[in-house]
Write a structure and sequence with these properties.
Blueprint: H1 2-15, E1 23-26, E2 33-36, H2 38-44, H3 51-58, H4 60-69, E3 73-75, H5 78-85, H6 87-92, H7 97-115, H8 147-163, E4 173-175
Antiparallel strand pairs: 1-2, 3-4
Helix pairs in contact: 1-5, 1-7
Length: 188
């Protein structure tokens, strides 16, 4: 499934290459509003008459995309890197399927690493009990829980967690790279 996701990631990176140069930040409201200039985007790419891309740009999903990815200062991800830095690579791979497949596999591997940052930590699955295991008499019943000991353990855990530094997520906000301007991508 990561390879399928990588293919769609490449597709949308190709569709939206240069979108950042068509974003306008409007500051007349209390909260700044980000507007996407659709006509400029389509015109600079020579796709004014393209029904598919026009419908994509007019959809609610794209409006959400602009509001989420429009701010110039936010956490960057793999999509931002593709749109900003891999433009020429994607363009060069269009006629070379083996290179394209290699790039898709690289992207899939990065997607997998993003979802599994610590692959060495694996959770052991508990095997299902064998059939008839409930009939065994040599198994001791589960011991009764000592409520006092449970309270002690909870208090110890709380004391440790209050003294420990707060956990922070590794994502750091940065200025989103703009990438090349839209005019570079005249599509057929």
């Amino acid at each position: 499934d990561k390879e399928v996701r990588a293919i769609f990631l490449r597709l949308f990176a190709q569709l939206f290459q240069g979108y950042r140069s068509c974003l306008q930040l409007i500051r007349i409201h209390a909260e700044p509003v980000i507007h996407f200039h659709k006509a400029a985007f389509l015109g600079q790419r020579g796709l004014i008459e393209n029904d598919f891309l026009t419908k994509v740009l007019n959809g609610m999903a794209f409006a959400g995309f602009v509001s989420e990815r429009g701010p110039p200062f936010r956490t960057c991800d793999l999509f931002d890197e593709l749109v900003a830095f891999e433009v020429e690579r994607i363009k060069a791979e269009e006629g070379n399927p083996p290179k394209m497949i290699k790039h898709v596999r690289e992207l899939a591997e990065q997607l997998f690493k993003n979802e599994n940052p610590n692959p060495h930590i694996a959770f052991q699955k508990v095997p299902r009990p064998t059939e008839g295991s409930h009939l065994r008499v040599h198994i001791l019943p589960f011991p009764r829980i000592n409520e006092g000991r449970v309270q002690e353990l909870l208090q110890e855990g709380l004391a440790r967690s209050q003294g420990a530094p707060a956990a922070t997520r590794g994502d750091k906000k940065c200025v989103v790279p703009a990438g090349p301007p839209v005019g570079m991508f005249i599509c057929s």
